[in-house]
Amino acid sequence: MKIICDSSALVSLSASCLLDSLEFLENNSKARFAITSAVEGEIVSRSERIEKYRFSSVRLKNLIRRGVLPVEEPRGLRKETQKIMQAANAAYLLRGRGLPILHEGEAECLACISLTGAKAILVDEKTTRLLLEDPRGMARTMSAEYGEKVVLNQSALAKFSAFKATTVLRSTETLKLAAELGFFKDYGYLDGDALSAGLHALRRAGCSISHRELDEYENL
Amino acid sequence: MHGEGFQAAALTQGRRFFIPRGVNACVNAENLRALRVLFEKRDIPGLKGYAGNAAREAFVRADSSLVDLSILAYSLAKLAEKPHIINSPAWKPLADLVSKKLQGAEEHAAKGEKEKARARVQQALNAIDSLSMDLGRFVSGIVEKARLRAAAQMYAHGASLGAACAFTGASKQDLASYVGETKMPEKYESVPLARRLDSARRLLEE
Q: What is the pLDDT at residue B14?
């Protein structure tokens, strides 16, 4: 099952030293992760120019080199990416103008899903997730933040009805699933602590998960 | 005081940002003057409020020149609140230079010379960066921290991680970890966790 990865999730996993969980899932389930060229550009090319993130860039580059994170380039990707960006950036209106909420990397992930039939996206940042799962909720949150009404443009939003069946995963979910399959087996009796600490580390590294949800994980 | 076609922004929540009616760019003489006055009065809360508003409007209007104003305002606030900086001999020359650059930017903006106005703002930012040579490593992080704050403000107002970083030049890694240290993620729950995991487990078996 193909899962397209956004750079936000790879950033959290890398910062938390949990990138290995992706390969573990590939070796122990039918999951197959992939990225797009825009994401490759973000996590490799851009990061390797920033000294403190260079090692992270090398690790991700190695995953690409070894085929754990192949780069998908379906035909029509650029055109579909532009359509998705235009729709997303016209979906939320403030003072009559569309808010430019989505960037090319995130839009390209969605376009890749649309063109390849992938069933899931791995994304830690909140805008892409909420656009697919709770666009109205995002409008309410934005209205509260602005102190002004953010209006939904239903015709632009209609573009995203095609993603109704797309499962949105965060790095916390992939770690949990990896743990269920034995990722922390080598930790022995510490495996529960390892998972708990790993989930919290992912949150601190940028995964958009609430503390309430982290508490819920403790009780699962 | 305000030219025709300009109006003060809503004063709710202490916003003091002048938004021109029907004009795309907000790097105008009024905004630059407001920033200079805040700085010369050493109004630290005012500078921070200005920085937040400028970042928000930069996102709403997709105007990257406003990002420069946000970064400058926040950087000046952070510098001005450090006694060891404002008491150092390097401070007065910097403060005078920043005021001069902002005044120059105002004059250019008043003539409609947007690019020249923006260049003056950039020169002020460069001067702050250069101060790091005199005042040590700490100061050199101020502009980058201000950039990150602007990005976080945009993220809080709806921008994706990628969009916020593209507008401000902040790195995704820096912004992600900054957001991770805030309460922002508390507001963004959607699908119940159990349902999300069940869907994922089914997919892993396909």
A: 37
Phi, psi of B10 (to 5 degrees): -55, 135
H or E stretch covering B27: none
Strand ranges for B80-166 from DSSP E? none
Q: Quick one: average pLDDT of B17-27?
A: 47
User: To the nearest whole angstrom, how far is the Cα of A127 from the nearest Cα of chain B?
Assistant: 5
Per the structure, how many domains does chain B have?
A: 1
- Residue B9 burial (C-beta neighbours within 10 Å; 0-12, 13-18, 19+): middle
If contacts are CB pairs under 8 Å, which of residues 118-137 in chain A contact chain B?
119-120, 124-130, 133-134, 137
- Residue B128 belongs to domain spanning: 6-204
Cα separations in angstroms, B150 against A6, A32, A93, B107: 22, 36, 21, 26
A103: left (phi over 0), alpha (psi -120 to 50) or beta: beta
What SS3 state is found at A68? coil
Contact between chains at B203 and A1 (C-beta distance less than 8 A): yes
Helix axis angle, B91-110 to B64-80, nearest 10°: 150
Question: For the CA atoms of chain A, what is the radius of gyration?
Answer: 18
For residue B168, the distance in angstroms to the closest alpha carbon of chain A comes to 13
- Using the predicted structure, report yes or no on whether residue B20 has a pLDDT greater than 50: no
- Asked, for residue B1, whether it belongs to a domain, the answer is no
Per-residue model confidence as pLDDT tens digits over A75-95: 999 999 999 999 999 999 999
A57 reaches B (C-beta below 8 A):
no
Quote the minimal CA–CA distance from B103 to chain A in Å. Answer: 30
Whether B186 contacts A211, CB under 8 Å: yes
On the question of pLDDT at B132 being above 80, the answer is no
Q: Which of residues 145-184 of A touch B (CB under 8 A)?
A: 145-147, 150, 167-169, 173-174, 176-177, 180
Confidence at residue A218, expressed as pLDDT on a 0 to 100 scale: 85
> What is the share, in percent, of chain B residues with pLDDT greater than 90?
65
β-bridge partners, A151? A93
pLDDT at B136 over 70: no
Q: Does the pLDDT value for residue B18 go beyond 60?
A: no
Q: Average of pLDDT values for A28-45?
A: 92
Helix (H, G, I), strand (E, B) or coil at A102: coil
Look at residue B82 and tell me if it is in a domain. yes
* A16/B contact by beta carbon, under 8 A: no
